[in-house]
Amino acid sequence: MKHYNDFQIVGIDHGYGNIKTANTVTPTGITKLDAAPTFTKNTLFFEGSYYQIGEGHKEYLADKWQDEDNYLFTLMGIARELNQEGITSAKVYLAVGLPITWVGRQRESFRQYMLQRESVDFKYEDKLYSVRIIGCYVYPQGYAAVVEKLNEMTGLSMIADIGNGTVNIIFVSNRKVINTKTYTEKMGVNQCVKAASNAMMNKLGVTVDETIIQSMIRYGKADIDSEYADVLRQAIAEYAESIFALLRKYEYDPKMMRLYITGGGGKLIENFGSYDKDRVTIIGDICASAKGYEFFAAAQLRKEGK
Q1: Which band of pLDDT confidence, cut at 50, 70 and 90, is reported for residue 65?
Q2: Residue 33 belongs to a domain
Q3: pLDDT in tens, 18-41
C-alpha cells in the first residue's frame, strides 16, 4: 500500500492460485458459510453473509469481472493492507491487473466491476472496515512485476509470467513492450499440479495431497518417501521443460535475448528448470506484480495531476 495525498493506493494481483497484495498472500479458495464461524481467521462478513477465504484455489475463468468472488477477494486485500498500518477507515485507489492480451478487451469492464460500490462497509477477521473506493487503474500482469528491472532491459528481452492459470509472454525492446508480441496461454502451474497428481496415480496407484506437490514445487523437496518424491520430481521437471518449449514456440532464443520469469511458477523453474543462470532472471517476490501496480498507479496519478 502506498500513501498518496489523502488516500491509499492498494495494489491487488487477482491470481487463480493466490490473491497477492504488496505485503500479503492468500490462497483463493472461498466458501460461503451458513452461520457465523467459531474462528474468525481469514473470514469476511459482507452484506449479511460470512465467507471463509484461503483454503484451496479457484478454477480458471477467462473473464475475471464476471466472477463475484474477485470483489470479495478485493475487500479482503484492502483489509489486509489497511491492517498492516492499523487503519480501518480510508479512501482507496485500487491498482489491479489482467493478463496482457486481455487488457484491451476487459480493462473497462474490470475497472467498472471494481468500482461497483463507492462506499463499502464490511468485516474481516471480526474487525469493521469502512472504505471509499475512489478510483481504479488496470495494468498488464507480468510487466508490472519487472518494474525494478526495466532499466536493465536494453536490447531484446522476454518476460514470462507463470501464474496458476495462465502463462503471459511479453517481448520488450529497449525497455518498451512490443505490442504485437504479447501472448497468453492457459498453461499455468495448476496444469503442473494435475500432471504430477496423474503421474502418482498412473505409476504408483496412489493419490497425493496437493499441498505435497506444492511443497515440492516451492522448495524442491517434500516430507515423503523417496520413491514418491522421484515420481513428483520427474513430472515437475517435465512441466518445466514444457514451459521452455512454449517459450521457444514464441521464438525465445537464449543467446539473443534475456529472459525474466515472474509469478508463482518462478520457484518451479528455479528448482526444476534447465537454463543459463547468467541470462535468465527469476523474480522471486510473488507480490511483485501488486507492488508494480502501485508504482504505476502513483506515477499515473502524478502525471494526471491528481
Answers
A1: low
A2: yes
A3: 999 999 999 988 999 999 998 999
Q: Are 43 and 126 part of one and the same domain? A: yes
Q: Are residues 122 and 166 in the same domain?
A: no
Say how many C-beta atoms besides its own lie within 10 A of residue 52's C-beta. 17
Query: According to the model, what pLDDT value does residue 236 have?
Result: 98
Count of domains forming the chain: 2
On the question of pLDDT at 271 being above 80, the answer is yes
What the block records as the C-alpha cell of 25 is 498472500
Segments forming the whole domain that contains residue 262:
144-189+222-285
Quickly tell me which residue has 475512489 as its cell.
Answer: 134
Q: Establish if 203 belongs to a structural domain.
A: no
